[in-house]
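Batch manifest, entry 17 of 40.
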Amino acid sequence: MFTANAAHELRTPLTTMRTAIDVTLDDQPGTPELLAMTGDISAAVDQSKRILDGLLTLARSQAGPIRQHDVDLADLVSGILAGAAGETTARDLAVRRDLWPARITGELVLLERMVGNLIDNAVRYNHAGGCIEVTTGVTGGLPFACIANTGPPITPSTAEALLEPFVRGEGVRTGLGLGLSIVRGIVAAHHGTISIVARPTGGLAVTLRFPACDKINSMKR
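Output type: structure tokens
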């Protein structure tokens, strides 16, 4: 099923490109028609690249031992929020931060992708004037990060299903269907857990919990 879904996702932008070329060249296109065609093709190429990048990241998270670095989730989240400041401002989104140290051990590139996907979802699937709430810290001895957003209502069963590859919300586009499954794969590769909750007022709250650094090191011995 995964292979079939991946093939379907990749076929969609290819079909878009083929249609744009056939429809445009079926007549005698002028410059405006050719420019419109190149715009459609460029967007489809970008979509294909995002799908392939997602598949490669998902495969990498499942490939075995990962490189180890000391990472503070608070610093990681803060940096990615700074990079998203232009988009949050453009969408009139309030960002509430409660960032306390949360040190874990893992591969920085994968952890950046993990947090980046969650922030991107929180921004993209929100509404104008909405809010993003980000919290990091340690509870019960376990480092954690929680990213929550306002947005369209989502049923609890749909929220859980969003962790599966290529699943989209009912009536709500959830990206390319890989974002949250990539997050789950990266969390699993770092011996962590992920929980996703549909907020009663709309939107999601995603909480990631990881073993403390000393517990991760003991797992490897």
